[in-house]
Amino acid sequence: MGALSVLVLVAVFLVLLVLGTPISVSIGISTLCTMLLSIDFLPSVTTVAQRMATGLDSFALLAIPFFILSGQFMNRGGIARRLIEFAKVLVGWLPGGLAFVNILAAMLFGAISGSAVAAAAAIGGFMVPNMEKEGYDKAFSTAVNITSSTTGMIIPPSNILIVYSLASGGVSIAALFIAGYLPGILVGLMLMLVSGIIAWKNGYPTVPGISAKEGILKFFDAIPSLMLIVIVIGGIVAGFFTATEASAIAVLYTFILSVMVYREVSWKHIPDILLKSAMTTSIVMLLIGTSMAMSWIMSYENIPQSVSAFLLNLTQNRFLILMIINIILLFIGTFMDMTPAVLIFTPIFLPVVMNTGMNPIHFGIMMVLNLSVGLCTPPVGSVLFVGCGIGNVSIENVIKPLIPLFMAMIIALLLVTYFPWISMILPRVFGY
């Protein structure tokens, strides 16, 4: 029954994806079809519904809708523009300065909003037209915006790290948040290195010089936005509040900043912001619920144990095991959204890597960084589609400039995979 269950689960899921069925529905139907091999229809439906409800019954998951709502306030509240101006002060003077500004601003905005799509839309909507005006190739500008936006998945606060905490059985969210900083910065630096080389070869211009007085003014203008990182992460590390409580504080802070301080969000915009946040939350929660049901049926059929045994029998070499897992996840990321991928494959691969001595925190960062590459690839790369839409560039035209940036992300992934201290040094400093 085990082999037949795996075949039905995978076959139904892939067929539904090819037919264009939403991924959450594909996961739910494939799970139900697999369960029908063992029990009748009504008990199967009841069990799937129960597992979906149970999977969503988690205090940690309350952080996700709050971080989504705070991201909506930031997207509308002029925060992205202020971060871009601040980034110009720091890196705009370098060769290919506007590409560096795009990357740094995306890192900062992603770190504040926790959303790659929001970063691609907010930063790209301002930077891509400006880069084109200064003589940058539009496809290159779009590629830089797409790849740099994914750093928000690793640099906290990150919704996907909260999902990984749930899937892994309770790895500390605070530890994951702290562990994400150095890998996220590493990805940004690798993207800057490649972008700088391309910009130098093509003779792209730098940002005109900014006076010391103007630089100081831009810095102070960005401080209220940057303070969100200090308040949220600092409060979690200091033990003042949990990640879930921090997400609520983030909503309050961004509301005050957008509505009362910057005054770029009026009261009449708030219903629309709440509606969009609710819609995004419902999509994410449906993905989580159906993925948790699929994870349960996979566990019931002993699929994680079988995969673990297969990989460990295939080789005991830690280097090769991690390479195989990375290749599988890179493939998975091309057609599956990050949330279900983390929920489904964490229970499969986590036991394998723990047998090799890998820390669950380190694996979580590696997995999220790996799947972030999939956000930039067809056929389901959400950031790719948003970035191309913002830049008004076809996917075919953006693929060529994306390739060297992909390679930069993969090199960063390999460094994070095989040098654990990159992920683990900060958690250990803070006692995790």
Please describe the topology of this protein.
Blueprint: H1 2-18, H2 23-35, H3 41-56, H4 63-76, H5 79-91, H6 97-113, H7 116-133, H8 138-149, H9 159-167, H10 173-179, H11 181-202, H12 212-238, H13 243-261, H14 270-300, H15 303-314, H16 318-333, H17 338-355, H18 360-374, H19 382-391, H20 395-418, H21 421-429
Helix pairs in contact: 1-2, 2-3, 2-14, 3-14, 4-13, 4-14, 5-6, 5-12, 6-7, 6-8, 6-11, 7-8, 7-19, 8-19, 8-20, 9-17, 10-21, 11-20, 12-13, 14-17, 15-17, 16-17, 16-18, 17-18, 18-20
Architecture overview:
The protein is mainly alpha-helical and 432 residues long. The protein has one domain (61-261, 302-429). 78% of the residues lie in helices and 0% in strands. It is built from 21 helices and no strands. The protein has helices at residues 2-18, 23-35, 41-56, 63-76, 79-91, 97-113, 116-133, 138-149, 159-167, 173-179, 181-202, 212-238, 243-261, 270-300, 303-314, 318-333, 338-355, 360-374, 382-391, 395-418, 421-429. α6 packs antiparallel against α7. It is globular and about 70 Å long.
What is the SS-derived class?
Answer: mainly alpha
Number of beta-strand segments: 0
| Count of DSSP-assigned helices | 21
Strand fraction equals under 5%
Profile the largest sheet.
none
- Give the overall average pLDDT: 83
**Radius of gyration over alpha carbons?**
22 Å
In one word, what is the shape? globular
Helix content: over 70%
What is the succession of H and E elements? Answer: HHHHHHHHHHHHHHHHHHHHH
